[in-house]
Specification:
The chain has a 5-stranded mixed β-sheet with strand order 1-2-5-7-6, with helices on both faces. The chain has a two-stranded antiparallel sheet with strand order 3-4. It is globular. The protein is an alpha/beta fold. 48% of the residues lie in helices and 8% in strands. It has helices at residues 3-27, 39-44, 60-66, 96-109, 122-144, 182-193, 225-243, 253-267, 290-300, 306-309, 320-336, 338-348, 363-373, 378-389; strands spanning 73-76, 80-84, 89-90, 119-120, 174-179, 201-205, 210-216. It folds into 2 domains: 32-246, no CATH class; 248-390, no CATH class. The structure holds zinc ion (ZN) (2 copies). The site of one zinc ion has 6 residues, from helix 5. The site of one zinc ion has 6 residues, from helix 7 and helix 8.
Length: 390
């Protein structure tokens, strides 16, 4: 072999190697292109850091190590910790308005955020989730009529019971892990639940007292932020409400699910997360227009009574009509009786027994009593709701 042919043979390999280096660097950038990990910019957009962080049961480094993905990105904000392996997303024409409005909000904090990108890169998607997560946390606190200062680091016996920590009553921030594949979601959740789950999973870690949501974003719908975000909001509504005054027992299904659907639909009216095995959404079960369906249901006189609904103990016991009915009742409270709603939610969570310990005993009785305090029986409540819904 002459020297020249040796170089000629080796050259393509060398070229390939050099080309591969920047590609590899592109695949795993150390620095976020939007905040550039700059402390002032991070602070401006409400992100405390891009990791490492204690997200999940063993922290962000374990996630990177244990879960195969193109790229894991992290963001910690005031109340939440995010892990995301989402790839880039093409901005579709019919979704452009929504995306542009969100980018406008983010650009106020991060001036380099593009005006009309054709694609959102994984960092931009993460920053948008981090921003909207905190916006939703504020929305939820408003609904509960509480502020951060209402939640002490640990339980105080000299004040009304508010749980055991600063995050609505939990010790730690809320974790959200968004997986680009169902396989990674399975692997991740199996380690601490011991079970194989297909849909989004909500979990309470007794140690160190924190709530986590794990979301597989593999379904066609969930690949798009337009449907993924309301699905995350639905799950966050459940964990925020469970966490409120500490997660010591499951809240009544009807109000828990009604609230999650109401808040999900505030974000995207056409989205409706289904609980249980199916886990996916928009699969044709349930009506497209909940408001119209509620009117029809009330008109038919077949809506299940609140007295019955307060006894429901599993998500699976709610029929598609029941979901419309619980969604509508919660909307009635949000729109016509926000102060009463806050009192009702506050009373349901943090019930104490004679020893001043949280107890989930006789929740139907507790609900009757709370309604009574607000001037309703379950019958007169339903009458008020029906005339509002009509
Ligand atoms: Zn960033
Ligand atoms: Zn739900």
């Amino acid at each position: 072999m002459t020297r020249n042919t040796w170089i000629a043979r080796l050259l393509p390999a060398l070229v390939a190697l050099f080309l591969a280096l920047p590609l590899e660097a592109q695949k795993k950038p150390e620095t976020c292109p939007w905040c550039k990990n700059d402390p002032a910019l991070l602070q401006a957009c409400g992100v405390l850091s891009h990791g490492p962080s204690p997200v999940g049961p063993k922290g962000s480094e374990a996630i990177v190590h244990d879960l195969p993905a193109g790229q894991w990105l992290f963001a910690e904000t005031a109340h939440m910790r995010w892990a995301s392996s989402l790839g880039p997303m093409v901005v579709e024409l019919d979704d452009k308005k929504r995306v542009m409005a969100e980018l406008d909000r983010l650009r106020v904090m991060l001036p380099d955020v593009p005006k009309e990108p054709k694609k959102l890169d994984p960092w931009l998607r993460l920053h948008l989730m981090a921003m909207k997560g905190e916006e939703f946390y504020a929305r939820f606190e408003k609904l509960l009529d509480v502020r951060d200062e209402d939640f002490p680091d640990a339980r105080r016996m000299d004040k009304p019971y508010m749980g055991n920590g600063r995050y609505l009553g939990e010790k730690e921030k809320f974790d959200v892990v968004v997986h680009s594949t169902l396989a990674a979601h399975n692997l991740f959740t199996k380690e601490f639940t011991g079970a194989s789950v297909t849909g989004a999973l909500r979990w309470h870690f007794k140690e160190p007292h924190k709530m986590l949501v794990s979301v597989p974003a593999e379904d066609h719908d969930l690949k798009k932020d337009r449907w993924l975000w309301p699905h995350i909001v639905h799950n966050l509504s459940h964990v925020f409400f469970c966490a409120y005054k500490h997660f010591s027992y499951d809240p009544p299904i009807w109000i828990d699910e009604g609230l999650a659907l109401a808040l999900e639909k505030e974000v995207e009216p056409e989205s409706a997360t289904l609980e249980g095995e199916e886990g996916s959404m928009r699969d044709g079960k349930g009506p497209k227009d909940y408001a119209a369906a509620a009117k029809k249901l009330v008109g038919s006189g077949k809506a299940r009574s609140l007295a019955e609904l307060t006894e429901v103990k599993e998500f699976g016991e709610l029929s598609p009509e029941d979901k419309v009915a619980v969604w509508s009742r919660v909307r009635f409270l949000i729109e016509a009786h926000p102060a009463e709603l806050a009192k009702f939610l506050g009373g349901i969570k943090g019930q104490l027994d004679a020893q001043q310990l949280p107890t989930g005993s006789d929740l139907p009785g507790l609900q009757r009593k709370l309604l009574q305090d607000l001037g309703w029986t379950s019958f007169t409540f339903d009458e008020a709701w029906k005339s509002w819904a009509r």
